[in-house]
Amino acid sequence: MYDVAKIRSDFPILSREVNGKPLVYLDNGASAQKPQVVIDAVTRAYSHEYANVHRGLHYLSNLATDQYEAVRGKIARFLGAASEDEIVLNSGTTEGINMVAYGWAMPRMQAGDEIVLSVMEHHANIVPWHFLRERQGVVIKWVDVDATGALDPQAVLDAITPKTKLVAVTQCSNVLGTMVDVKAITQGAHAKGVPVLVDGSQGSVHAPVNVSDIGCDFYAITGHKLYGPSGSGAIYVKSERMAEMRPFLGGGDMIKEVSKEGVIYNDPPMKFEAGTPGIVQTIGFGVALDYLMELGMENVAAHEAGLRDYAMQKFAGLNWMQVQGTTPDKAAIFSFTLDGAAHAHDISTILDKKGVAVRAGHHCAGPLMDHLGVTATCRASFGLYNTTQEVDALIDALELAHELFA
């Protein structure tokens, strides 16, 4: 059984108070809290097991290297990759997408070539493509969502032309909670000879992922959203695409030999991992993935679906609240505004006084904010340890905010 009380006891921060109230942490879309096993793993790695990896023959270096490299296999299992050699370790989704932009896309694109994006992409899956637009004349084509926040896969496929070189889409909107049928998009894009990059920062958190089934060429994840340390993450790169990529960063570990005359690069995936990595962060990330896989992502998804349905039922009774994104199968992520002149920052401040932590702003999704016609929203994003009682606490805090600002 999914024992949420037991799970909550694994996260020490959830027992604290904020402003004299029990903490209700609903900012998981920005960063999730860490279970004690991850905290212990990080502490142990620094206290008793730390050394640099790949470079030493002594005991500690070998131990750190073994623990660090074991995470590659854990990520491959978590994502359903065919081989751990398709996993590039990095600091998170932002680095991963930039690696694809510089290492794969830039050498293959020229002025007039196109990249298809949805309007609800996070800036991490927008800004690197703007670099190519500014520097090489690449054209970005935008696909809108419908009134419910849904993204029609066929609309994405219809945007593909003979000039399209890449489709880059999120699997789950960090603002709307919309779950995207990335498998249908990938299949359709591949039929037209176009590779697909999936931003899995939110999608991998809320549901099981199998990149082999999806068929995508690139899939990026971020450790701190998956209950692991900040500064950890990875990108899955299909072996065929990896063979086409040039190195993104140069330095140690990504080389076999360096001479005055040139460089012989290391084999993939090491070819794309320059310098001393986030050793301890990555080890902690591996422990977080162990924790998630032991819980079972199917069980996490079912729990969060229950929270989503309960919250949507409660929100339906608040006629002064506007929720952005109403697709029935969305993740438990809710962006909203309240009637009146109150700014999202003011609303979140009132909620914080009640111990309820939400995010306020544009959520690194400027094009989507423009599409929705709002400058900012509040966002309550639920995780595997949240409860229906915390939904009720959010409702109570929202009613106070409405009373103050109405």
Automatic annotation (TrEMBL):
Domain Aminotransferase class V residues, every copy: 24-394
Pfam families xrefs: Aminotran_5
Essential cofactor(s): pyridoxal 5'-phosphate
Transferase as UniProt keyword: yes
PROSITE patterns: AA_TRANSFER_CLASS_5
SUPFAM superfamilies with a match to the protein in the record: PLP-dependent transferases
Alphabetical keyword list: Pyridoxal phosphate, Transferase
Physiological role: Catalyzes the removal of elemental sulfur atoms from cysteine to produce alanine. Seems to participate in the biosynthesis of the nitrogenase metalloclusters by providing the inorganic sulfur required for the Fe-S core formation. Catalyzes the removal of elemental sulfur and selenium atoms from L-cysteine, L-cystine, L-selenocysteine, and L-selenocystine to produce L-alanine.
Protein name as it appears in the record: Cysteine desulfurase
